[in-house]
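TODO from last week: model EXPERA domain-containing protein.
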Amino acid sequence: MSSYFSRMTSYHPYHPVDINLSGKYVENSFSPSILVVTFGTTWALVLGATLFAVRRFYPRLSIKDQGLVLWFILTGSIHIFFEGYFVYNHARMASRTDFFGQLWKEYALSDSRYMSSDSFLLTIETWTVILWGPLSYLTAVYITQNSQFRHTVQALVSTGELYGNLLYLGTSLLDEYTTGKRYYRPEPLYFWVYFVLMNSIWLFVPGFALYDSVMASARSFEYSDPPYAAKRTRKAKDDGGKKEKEYRKVPASQESDTRSRRGKAKSYNDDYSG
């Protein structure tokens, strides 16, 4: 307990320096490297266990679908457990000393809004925990079951993650551009690695998953919707007719050679019979 109070301080490392923190700031006891390595190792174990289960019970899944199952299990777990921690503890984040609390305080060096119960972040994170977390798990189940609802839910979750992440990044950068208020520390690590690189994962992977669902829906309409199906049938018939005409069409030189061979065969037969 004495070590806890000794780490309580009016100083904090966040930007802007006049930010109103949620609770009394307590310095982290874990180093950044320990926090990051432990966090990464935890999710690596989750992914490893998921991959083992998928290959054990659903060996016929394609490599792409296996990767998407891993993604939706990972992102769903982060939404529910890590972001859920913030939603539950947002009013006292600056004083949290457990592992997730210290991890959030480390990440907040790239976005101090997490230390101030920012209304926008609290709203969008709550929405993420309630909706996108459980639906991510549901999407993973639908992929393994080859469900007819798979691409509907996959597109919904991916669109939500894309939209939320763009709003998250955009509001921070827009505040800096319009008011000069910067929520990240000046060191390149916090902006380019924590803020840009880490969050870009939730742009590219959901973007790919959304593209996958859009293309699957397009193929479904092509084969099932009457106008598209009729168009495809007409195209197949036209292609078949062209191939048949090309097959029947014999070049003049080839036709001449055929007639010559037939003439020689007839002359040979006449001589033999005579």
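Done. The chain has a mean pLDDT of 87.
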